[in-house]
Write a structure and sequence with these properties.
With 506 residues, this protein is mostly helical. The chain has 19 helices and two strands. The protein has a two-stranded antiparallel ribbon. The longest helix has 33 residues. It is found in: Membrane.
Length: 506
């Protein structure tokens, strides 16, 4: 009896372990078959660029320029932003390829479920939820002090929006942050196209402010002789190690582009538009960061930068006090765009987890009118608003970086797994699998016949191979990234010449 009990316990442990490493298909086909409403495919490349730039360029750049220049990089801050941008681009390439191969909502959670297993996907999903919730609440809390500058200080804010301290608990509540979160939540419930339009407007204002900083600061620099670069300590006052340490810190400024992949089911042509949207958005952010850091560290010595308001203080030191209001406008729009990007991605991760049975089906419902997950959006919006109202989440901001690091690492591992799995196990969308199956049924019986004919007539092999490759190319014309894998899957049993031709065709 004891031995049978041990066997039964061992079997339960074995099946429990198998459930943690089980993987799923690319598409949530069962959702479609059950007649659920689908997300609206309305996003274009321009919309993706606006979402990516808006979610990436937060107010961090308005603060990090002073802190990193003073403590780590000095005038070499521009190179630090470049190195961090290259590192972020490597992660962006992973996300772009995974989004093309696995075009379903869920971002890194979805990719890890397909490539690694359910256990890791569950951890990644909750890490992303934690990241977007805490990040959104922290961003909302940061808008209030910047907004107060237009009223002449926090004390001049309307009583209904001004922060208050609860004497009994010693908690500082922020009604303005909670109201902003609720406004963004209502906006996201109206539809993805409306949300992307607002994101595009806010992001355009933010980018315009950064261009103003570059142009006006460049004019002052050429007029005064770039005093920040005429230092006896040189361009690398903290050495090469300081430059790399600065790049590690400013990498935080590039977090946010991954929210673009959460909208993959709402993109008109994800295989083409997602890589372009992610790549162009990240390139724009890197260029703006480098130019702003170059101008600011050149206008004043790096050790004279204000660690809290470096850009505003630089322009104020040159007598341009009116520019402080423009820069503050850029910081507010950057924070608002970052808040919109955080609250946009989180409901779609909840929706993806609910589709897979890891959360109640309540979160997977899609409104038939707006074609967005309204229930998930409202739930996450209310939770983020409560968090922004009651808690000072600045101490929890480090958890945002932990969640992002975990998601980026999982995405990179998922790409490596895709590189080494057999061609017939490469995850493909259901629509492409049907195309492959139809071509396989059409040409499958002719492969062996073609082999025997080619042995008798080697000169005709090239013509036959070209014909087969042409047919397969037509079946997968919308999926260029995986055309090579399809060709290998079909011709794995052919001779070396077939494989070479398939590689060339890919």
């Amino acid at each position: 009896m004891q031995s049978s009990g041990n066997v039964g316990g061992g079997r339960k442990c074995f099946w429990g372990f198998r459930s943690l490493i089980q993987r799923k298909q690319v598409d949530s086909v069962h959702v479609r078959s059950e007649g659920h409403h689908q997300l609206a495919r309305k996003l274009s490349v321009t919309d993706l660029i606006a979402i990516g730039v808006g979610a990436t360029i937060g107010a961090g750049v308005y603060v990090l320029v002073g802190t990193v220049a003073r403590e780590h990089a000095g005038p070499a801050l521009t190179i630090s932003f470049l190195i961090a941008g290259i590192a972020a681009a490597l992660s962006a390439f992973c996300y772009a390829e995974l989004a093309c191969r696995c075009p379903s909502a869920g971002s890194a959670y979805h990719y890890s479920y397909i490539c690694v297993g359910e256990g890791v996907a569950w951890l990644v999903g909750w890490a992303l939820i934690l990241e977007y919730t805490i990040g959104g609440a922290a961003v909302a809390r940061g808008i209030t002090p910047n907004l107060a500058l237009f009223f002449g200080g926090v004390d001049k804010l309307p009583a209904i929006l001004a922060p208050h301290t609860i004497p009994v608990f010693g908690i500082v509540v922020d009604p303005c942050a909670a109201v902003l979160v609720l406004i963004v939540t209502f906006l996201l419930c109206t539809g993805i196209k409306e949300s992307s339009l607002v994101q595009m407007i806010v992001t355009s204002v933010n980018v315009s402010v950064m261009l103003f900083i570059v142009i006006a600061g460049g004019y002052l620099g050429f007029k005064t002789g770039w005093v920040g670069y005429e230092l006896p300590s040189g361009y690398f006052p903290f050495g090469i190690n300081g430059m790399f340490a600065g790049s590690a810190v400013v990498f935080f400024s590039y977090i946010g582009f991954d929210s673009v992949t959460s909208t993959v089911e709402e993109v008109k042509n994800p295989q083409r538009d997602l890589p372009l949207g992610i790549g162009i958005a990240l390139f724009i952010c890197c260029i703006l960061y480098m130019f702003v850091s170059f101008v600011i560290t050149g206008l004043v010595p790096y050790y004279a930068l204000d660690p809290d308001t470096p850009i505003s203080s630089v322009f104020a030191s040159y007598g341009l006090h009116w520019a402080v209001f423009i820069i503050t406008t850029g910081a507010i729009t950057a924070l608002f765009a970052s808040l919109l990007g955080s609250l946009l991605a989180q409901p779609r991760i909840l929706m993806a987890m609910a589709r897979d049975g890891l959360l109640p089906s309540f979160f997977s419902d899609i409104n038939k009118n707006t074609q967005v997950p309204v229930k998930s959006t409202v739930t996450t919006g209310i939770f983020a608003a409560v968090l922004a109202f009651f808690m000072d989440v600045s101490q929890l901001a480090g958890m945002v970086s932990v969640g992002t690091l975990f998601a980026f690492t999982t995405a990179a591992v998922s790409v490596l797994i895709l590189r080494y799995v057999p061609p017939d196990e490469v995850p493909l969308s259901s629509s492409l699998q049907e195309s492959i199956k139809s071509v396989s049924l059409r040409f499958g019986p002719n492969i062996q016949e073609s082999d025997s004919k080619n042995l008798q007539n080697p000169s005709g092999s090239s013509e036959n191979n070209s014909r087969y490759l042409h047919e397969i190319g037509e079946a997968s014309i919308g999926y260029p990234l995986i055309q090579k894998s399809i060709s290998q899957a079909f011709f794995a049993s052919l001779c070396v010449e077939y494989v070479e031709l398939s590689c060339c065709a890919a």
